[in-house]
Amino acid sequence: MAGAADDAAKGQIRQANEARILAAAERVFAGAGFGGATMAAIAEEAALPKANLHYYFGSKQALYRDVLAQTLKDWLEPTHVITPGADPRTAIETYIRAKMALSIQRPHASRVFANELLHGAPVVQTLLATDLRKLVLAKAEVIAQWVRDGRMAAVDPVHLFFTIWAATQTYADFEVQVCAVLGHKELTAQDQTRATEHVVTLILRGCGLT
């Protein structure tokens, strides 16, 4: 029993440290890019010894890949609400709100991912062409069936995802531009709420789901 308890405790410590390192890596990669980021800077940001980073992730390249993979996983997880039996309005609204929350809560992750795509997606190209494509096509077929059943307006299901991604991630990737236009140093809670309600209303209206 003691051995099992020790293993569980070690597992929890490992998970906590890995999450801490990934969060720190998001911030450092977002600010410095892959080329400018160092394991030493990430270790300092995580307040952990540099040896811990190498122990858990092996190299900067491996850590970068894990940051991108975790970001994509977190972005795709909210699509679980899009199922044939779901209410279209509730499902799409829930997904939009989840994507907005991720952009607001983890803007650095979005910026790292955007920078990867701007450079041709050399690391995540395979994930985009396999995991992402498979899931989007499956969820797009659910939306297409909703359209055929007259449960929502006729929209291009795949391009609906592109629109949602663009509308939600802009508040992370182009936060500086948004703040400049709003005249704020950073987005306030009121700004975030206003943005979320705007994006939700605009997209639902376009889907005939007001």
Task: Describe this protein's structure.
The chain has ten helices and no strands. It has 210 residues and is mainly α. 79% of the residues lie in helices and 0% in strands. The protein starts with a helix and ends with a helix.
Summarize the structure.
79% of the residues lie in helices and 0% in strands. It has ten helices and no strands.
Task: List the defining traits of the structure above.
210 residues, Arc Repressor Mutant, subunit A, mainly alpha, 79% helix, 2 domains, globular, Tetracycline Repressor, domain 2
Summarize the SSE layout with pairings.
Blueprint: H1 2-36, H2 39-46, H3 50-57, H4 60-76, H5 88-105, H6 107-118, H7 125-148, H8 157-173, H9 175-182, H10 189-206
Secondary structure tally: strands: 0
Largest sheet: none
Shape field = globular
Helix content: over 70%
CATH architecture of the largest domain: Orthogonal Bundle
**Count of separate DSSP helical elements:** 10
